[in-house]
Design goal:
The chain is of the alpha/beta class and about 220 residues long. The protein has one domain. The protein is built from six helices and nine strands. It has a seven-stranded mixed barrel. The chain is globular, with a radius of gyration of 17 Å.
């Protein structure tokens, strides 16, 4: 919470870092590099496999919407000429699309440990979005996951899926609300920054019950 409050008071530190990171990864990717999208989960015991899997439709209570999961454990292999492909750390837990007349792509980041919070997932989501700014990443997503619906200028919802606490007093809820404030500040700053690609639509925070998950999530906040 202390770190989150500090960033709320000085949001420009992260915004400047994000903008600088976009430039650095684009400059560092050689023209000879080739990328391959992978969505197989290398950890078959991961409990997220039970909750999210391709073709599963999920419903959000309190937001009157639903979405269909298209792929899980989305990552990339990248190689340069004469070098073997290197697998990047898995960053996106699921890729989905909303069930609307104008479907919106969603990238999901799911809590997996008690110590995780909306704040930690928010940072992971932004890190993944930056990695997608590498050349050809959106083309790969469009071709192999979204089947052509992204178009030339895609924007994404970033979904942060945290656990419900059966107890009334959840010590992490104040941090969840601070994370919302931080997401609001960062989204406004990034939207006004011409050097940052216009690929962020909304941050969405959802809750799920990992002990008896039936495909329904509960809406918490949207920025």
């Amino acid at each position: 919470m202390v770190e989150c409050v500090d960033l709320l008071q000085s949001p420009e530190f992260v915004v400047d870092d994000l903008v600088r990171s976009v430039s650095q990864i684009r400059e560092a990717t050689p023209e000879s590099a080739t990328a391959e999208l992978v969505s197989e989960d290398p950890r078959p015991c991961d409990p997220r496999d039970t909750f999210f899997y391709p073709s599963r439709e999920l419903f959000v209570q309190g937001d009157a919407c639903s979405f269909t999961c298209l792929a899980t454990a989305v990552g990339f292999h990248e190689a340069t000429a004469g070098e073997p492909a290197a697998e990047e750390p898995r960053r996106i837990d699921y890729a989905a699309v909303t069930c609307e007349a104008r479907p919106l792509p969603t990238l999901g980041f799911v809590q997996i440990e008690e110590s995780e919070s909306a704040y930690r997932l928010l940072l992971r989501a932004l890190s993944s979005l930056i990695e997608l700014a590498r050349p050809r990443r959106f083309d790969l997503l469009d071709r192999e996951v979204y089947r052509g619906i992204l178009g030339p200028a895609p924007v994404f919802d970033l979904a942060l899926v945290i656990w419900d606490d059966d107890q009334e007093a959840d010590a992490r809820r104040p941090l969840c609300e601070l994370s919302r404030d931080l997401a609001e500040v960062w989204k406004a700053a990034l939207g006004a920054e011409p050097r940052f690609p216009p690929i962020l639509h909304d941050f969405v925070c959802l809750r799920m019950n990992p002990k008896r998950f039936d495909g329904r999530l509960r809406f918490v906040w949207r920025v």
